[in-house]
Amino acid sequence: MSAPTAPKLVGQGIDRVDGRAKVTGAARYTAEIPMPNAAYGVLVGAEIGNGTLSSIDTDAALRAGAVAVYTHQNLPRVATVPVLPSAFGHSAPGQTFFPMQDTTIHYFGQPIAVVVADTFEVAQHAATLIEATYTAQPPMVRLDDGRDRQYLPDSIFAGLVPAAQSRGDFATAAAEAAHSVDATYHFAANHHNPIECSATAAMWDGDSVLVYDSTQGIVASQLTIAAYLGISPSRVRVVADYVGGGFGGKAMMWPHVTLAPLVARELARPVRIILNREQMFYGTGLREEQEQRITLVSDTDGRCTGLRHHKLSVTSPFDDWAELSLEVAGKAYAIANWEGRYQLVKGNTMTPTFMRGPGEASGMVALECSLDELAEQLGADPVELRLRNHAAVDPESGNRWTSDGYAECLRHAAERFGWGARNPVPGSHTDGNWLIGWGVGTAGYPVYEPGQPQRAHARLRSDGSLVVQAGTQEFGTGVATIASQVAGDAMGVPFDRVRVEIGSTDFPNIAAAVGSTGAAIVSSAVHIAGTQLLAQLVSIATADEGSPLHGRTSAEIEGVDGTLRLVSDPSIGETYSAVLQRNQLSDIETTGSWLPTPDPEAHGKLSFGAQFAEVAVDPELGLIRVRRLVGAFAPGRVLNAKLARSQVLGGMNWGLSQALMEGSLPDIRDGRWANSSLLEYLLPVNADAPAVDISFVEFEDSVLNPLGVKGLGELGMVGTAAAIINAVHHATGRRMREIPLRIEHLL
Ligand code: MOS
């Protein structure tokens, strides 16, 4: 191996390579990619939330110009109902129900027909003419209405996580404790609203299909579609040029993804299915309505000795799914006695799914607000109390973290926020009529690792340019930019000579970008591809009598800016092009493959951060305004300072949205979501966005992967909502336990 060179590109806040394409509209989403002779498929959803479809009349739709209508009567049966095959070494938990196989209606909006027409407009109109009759039963869509039917499953999440977990002895800890906080938090359901609604387009050529899909995992789409259709994955090619945000809603495979190729095959014509905004509330899962009860106990010094964290949430009729709200909350502090439990209620909803900070974001609201209460009881400073309870090791295993940085983040962010000037008495800070409150919350997120190799291909051409290919996709994170930086450093090629190609399953396998793993898995594979290719080039040069580096060992040589040279004397060397051209090689290539190496020490794996919020509350009107947010995060290596900041900026604003705005309200009469539009599902706009101050505390992590990347995307959202809710308490003296906080709750 040649001598490692210090990173030059990695870490820099380089602009997105696709930034111009995105702002000019040249970047195309799935629905915009031209397909000759394509027809449009529009889904028709059930108008009841529970029951059976008695009849469905498609005549009027066909008379209005639909070229075909598919219902349970004429849609071919799917070969299987798979859960998503995941590259994490096990099956990922997806919805195990596929619609239009029979007449049962499990949830409002469940597809009962696909109406196909030559234009989107005709298809949309014809879809309104489908006449269905039902035998309806009352739907269960509200936690309160199913409370008496709750149950404790063996496991949740497709069998991956036990529903009841514990360490130590909580009951004894509680009996012996000096202080105790017992509080129940309720969280409304949430729905994903990425800027691009989900869409899938399919075009058959013989027995092979090309699928354009708005997905967080092209390979996962490929494998899932193949399984549903009962064909080999080699017959399914999935392409995603650009995806307009996913946030978990495009991580699992939902019915429309398979319906497009299924209908296109029946019709022998390309078909494009686009969900509209309302259909996004019935088409891509949700963050489930839930209640979390926390009992947190401590000794006289505020050292927490026990934590009981019980969750009760709504799942679908077919899957035991709950977002993992207890896992990070159960490990974030040094608490010896812990008990966690996921109770479920079956409701008439889709199977819930990942939504940014899936579980961590809600679990840390309950925990961090409880810590705030404990601090108040003790008369302790909330920051000081957190430091007192910091988990120096993973409390679950007693093993060291791969890297930590929590205390540094907390101190650094507190300093930047000006926390030292805080008077703990609620209502003591004011600005005119406004009550000002300051609050803190901890961020934590697991580091997930793949169970299967992650791969990237690298090719150096004799003109000195480098092309890297990987089967990942751009959904807003800037992965191609990051991969270009990593490849440029690994191979010693200037940034503008690197091109990264992604978005096709023709490229080497990369797992779906879920759980904040995207940057880590892609950068690891690309780094290995780049270093392998450089080694290949070095061995060609050292074996070549015509090279000034002939006979040297690889350790003596470095690759910098497209030139191989001696580390000891940079004046001796030659360009990459010279090596290849003299050897009559048009190019050299390699595939890098990365799997985490076994970790004999079984380190704890968690990313940490700290969040602070300032709110202003109008006590007469109940208005809550977030004035500023300050966050510090320790995500291991920061690959691109600008992109990292963007990720966290979005996450922190989403935390604001979680605390104060987002909530899907079920209509208990028919099971629909009563606010399924951007008019009524509240999201923050620029006028709501506070000043946000973000810093990274970089800690080297030498355990996880070649570049020490822990992952960042979701961390930025965790803890923000708790900081805001704690700030509202500081402003008003009110403990708010209903999320999102609403004006009427404050009055
Ligand atoms: Mo993330 S919620 O796993 O896309």
From TrEMBL:
The keyword Transcription regulation does not apply. InterPro entries: Ald_Oxase/Xan_DH_a/b, Ald_Oxase/Xan_DH_a/b_sf, Ald_Oxase/xanthine_DH-like, AldOxase/xan_DH_MoCoBD1, AldOxase/xan_DH_MoCoBD2, AldOxase/xan_DH_Mopterin-bd_sf. It holds the Pfam family MoCoBD_2. One of its GO terms (molecular function) is oxidoreductase activity. Keywords: Molybdenum, Oxidoreductase. The keyword Oxidoreductase applies. Residues 24-138 form the Aldehyde oxidase/xanthine dehydrogenase a/b hammerhead domain. This is Xanthine dehydrogenase family protein molybdopterin-binding subunit. It comes from Nocardia uniformis.
